[in-house]
């Protein structure tokens, strides 16, 4: 039996005092590619934020990459985040640094010391997203799709057990969305577990996979109809 990489039991998610999602019972196992869908405002982002400890889990049980979300201490949050790769809709790249320096910055911040090892790691993750030749460029010199590839490379730096992608194609045109999706599919085939929030239903049709839906304050698995 593979051990779940993410497990929530009777969990409720709050933003301040407001209940956003209740009675969440889900499991994600190693190597899965899982979508999180739902209309804007149904709690997808709050769900993601709880997983990387931006929002505390106040009710129920939650375990993610061997961390207990309910009893997570402030000092443990950086260690949790090292085991997660987070990809945001708006890239969040540092505009005053080159691609390479963006990635080196993250490695330094997460405790890497050996410059040769760091350079090797940067080169390896850029190769994975087909951006090896663009390391010297600044973010503004890249297209949206290229910036998102760099953001995915950044998420891979510490070889995360789980990648949380929050609307990674939200700011991209359909063709670029497919290119970014292909990168994520390849990474998943290499064994990385991915949870991707999206409202792009075209991607779900093109790349069907396990799907969770946020609706009416709940999160549940959608059973795919076989065509």
Automatic annotation (TrEMBL):
Keywords: ATP-binding, Nucleotide-binding. The keyword Flavoprotein does not apply. It comes from Gaetbulibacter aestuarii. The keyword Nucleotide-binding applies. It comes from the Bacteria. SUPFAM superfamilies: P-loop containing nucleoside triphosphate hydrolases (SSF52540). This is ATP-binding cassette domain-containing protein. Residues 6-225 form the ABC transporter domain. InterPro entries: AAA+_ATPase, ABC_transporter-like_ATP-bd, ABC_transporter-like_CS, ABC_transpr_LolD-like, P-loop_NTPase. PANTHER family: CELL DIVISION ATP-BINDING PROTEIN FTSE, IMPORT ATP-BINDING PROTEIN. GO terms for molecular function: ATP binding. It holds the Pfam family ABC_tran.
């Amino acid at each position: 039996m593979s051990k779940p990489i993410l497990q929530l039991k009777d969990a409720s998610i709050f933003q301040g005092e407001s209940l956003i999602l209740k009675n969440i019972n889900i499991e994600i196992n190693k190597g899965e590619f899982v979508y999180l869908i739902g209309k804007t405002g149904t709690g997808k982002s709050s769900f993601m934020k709880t997983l990387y400890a931006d929002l505390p889990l106040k009710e129920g049980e939650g375990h993610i990459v061997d961390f207990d979300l309910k009893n997570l201490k402030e000092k443990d949050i950086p260690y949790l985040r090292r085991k997660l790769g987070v990809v945001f809709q708006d890239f969040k790249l540092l505009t005053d640094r080159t691609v390479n320096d963006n990635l080196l910055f993250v490695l330094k911040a997460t405790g890497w010391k050996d410059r040769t090892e760091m350079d090797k790691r940067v080169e390896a993750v850029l190769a994975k997203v087909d951006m090896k030749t663009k390391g010297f460029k600044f973010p503004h010199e890249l297209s949206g799709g290229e910036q998102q590839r760099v953001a995915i490379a950044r998420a891979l730096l510490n070889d995360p057990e789980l990648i949380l992608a929050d609307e990674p194609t939200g700011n991209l045109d359909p063709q670029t969305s497919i290119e970014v999706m292909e990168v994520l599919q390849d990474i998943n085939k290499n064994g990385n577990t991915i949870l991707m929030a999206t409202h792009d239903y075209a991607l779900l049709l093109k790349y069907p996979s396990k799907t969770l839906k946020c609706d009416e304050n709940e999160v549940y698995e959608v059973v795919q109809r076989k065509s």
